[in-house]
Amino acid sequence: MRKNPLPHLLLPLSFVAILGAGCQQQTEEEKTIASTHPKLEERLQRDSLRGADTLEQNPEIYERYRLRMDAYQSDEAFRVQEAYRGRLAPLDEASLTDARQFREALQEGLKQGVNFAGRYTVVTMECGPTCQEHYVVDRQDGKVLDKLQSSTGAQFSPDSRIFIVNPPDSSHNYVECPYCEPAAYVLEAGKFRKLPQGQ
Question: Which end of the chain is more exposed for a tag (fewer CB within 10 A), N or C?
Answer without folding.
Answer: N
